[in-house]
# Entry
Amino acid sequence: MNGRVLHVVGTRPNFVKAAPVVAALRTAGCDQVLVHTGQHYDERMSDIFFRQLGLPEPDTDLGVGSGSHARQTADLLIALEGELSARDPALVMVYGDVNSTLAAALVAAKLGMPVAHVEAGLRSFDMAMPEEINRRLVDQLAELLFVTSPEAVGHLAREGTDPGRVHLVGNPMIDTLLTHLDHFDPAAARAACGLPETYGVVTLHRPANVDDPEAAKAAARALTEAARLVDLAVPLHPRGRAALGAAGLDGAPGVHILEPLGYVEFMSLVRGAAAVITDSGGVQEETTVLGVPCLTLRTTTERPVTLTHGTNRLVGHRELVPALRKVLDGGQPAPEEGPPLWDGRAGARIAAVVTRWLDHHV
# Structure
């Protein structure tokens, strides 16, 4: 097998998805380069994830940081062009749907380098979401599309994608979860955060919930009322903490605002939670496999498999408290099994496709 594979990661969900792929390709003897764009740059949001997930130290950390979508994407394009040109990989692998994903795919395509997209084909059909724009464009540019669930195959087919480029491999994020499952200690995490035995976990970061002041106020009101039913642990990104704090969430009775947590600490909290309230795509998937009831504070999801196979339900701000009350009363039972191919072997399946592709194309 010849040819170098260059992985581009930029945010915590990227790290979780990339870890099993990097490990499987390492086992296969593949020459790899790991580029961290620095889109998540706080130590709690980046470095600790590399250590806990067993990812190698990045060969390059571009340190791009935050900014508006336009400025951040422009900085990513410039930095990645130099990096890809210097490294000259045979294949560029991108993950998920963040700005780093789009920038890497676009730069690679402009340089004539093939792209592989892990987590292809997901669609929320909500073009107000920056992630929806990113994932649609990346799928148009990718040579290899690695799909996590059957409905994503259908989305790509309806868009005219060559089926020979599409590979249903399962979910590498679940590989990481199952690998570390024995390390998730809910009791220790609960004690470290000063939580009672029964508690919920909240993660909110999407613009629809935190960037608009009125939406942030509505979310804060709903969560304040929800905390009357059960104590809520709320680890927040810096942007979300400022927005929701200004909206009145900070200091509300029963609300425990936390700093961002490492992967093991966060998943330990989730595993022991009575319910999770989120707007994150990955958390919808993780709770599905863990059997933890999930209430997604959104009107759409690009992961409908979590609705049909898992414990997930979409709710609005006004629906949150009644839905949470139902969950706490035992009205949202856990599924007997997870979605197809969410079995901890997605990384190995991706590596098998990549090594075959390299043998034929390099």
